[in-house]
């Protein structure tokens, strides 16, 4: 079975035989797959009236377990955005009734962001929709193939995830 990357690689081998274009065999496919995944995720989130960034914040809170709350600083760490961006996101989610701000009992000046019942429900439904989309993307891969692919991708991504700062 030939795909667009096969055609791209063949063209570069013809036009630039002096270059080793082998990395394109893997990384161009990863890039194309990422675009398809982004479209599928946006569709899954839109079905639940969520933007991708809203899903990220809501599911960061949801994964913590009861009482589903984090400090804004903890949310920053999990979502990799600036404090100004996070403040704006929390404001917008609070206006929609998906999160609420509460005083932090361990810090008089601090606040905690807690998932509301509606926020939890929306996050849960969007996650279920996302998993349906992702299963479709994985298609006919066997359990063994999925595990092998996950292991290989982990080898590529782990060094980026474990770099300080």
Automatic annotation (TrEMBL):
The keyword Transcription applies. SUPFAM superfamilies: Winged helix' DNA-binding domain (SSF46785). Pfam families: MarR_2. Residues 23-158 form the HTH marR-type domain. SMART domains: HTH_MARR. Keywords: DNA-binding, Transcription, Transcription regulation. The keyword DNA-binding applies. It comes from the Bacteria. This is MarR family winged helix-turn-helix transcriptional regulator.
């Amino acid at each position: 079975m030939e795909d667009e990357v096969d055609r791209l690689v063949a063209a570069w081998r013809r036009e630039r035989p002096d270059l080793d274009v082998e990395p394109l065999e893997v990384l161009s496919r990863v890039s194309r797959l990422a675009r398809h995944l982004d479209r599928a995720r946006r569709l899954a989130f839109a079905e639940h009236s969520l933007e991708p960034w809203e899903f990220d914040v809501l599911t960061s809170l949801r994964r913590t377990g009861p009482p589903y709350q984090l400090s804004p600083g903890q949310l920053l760490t999990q979502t990799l955005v600036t404090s100004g961006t996070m403040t704006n996101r929390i404001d917008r989610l609070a206006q929609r009734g998906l999160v609420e701000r509460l005083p932090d009992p361990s810090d008089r000046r601090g606040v905690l962001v807690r998932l509301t019942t509606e926020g939890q429900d929306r996050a849960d439904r969007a996650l279920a929709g996302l998993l349906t989309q992702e299963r479709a993307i994985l298609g006919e891969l066997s359990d063994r193939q999925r595990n092998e692919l996950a292991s290989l991708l982990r080898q590529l991504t782990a060094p980026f995830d474990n770099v300080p700062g």
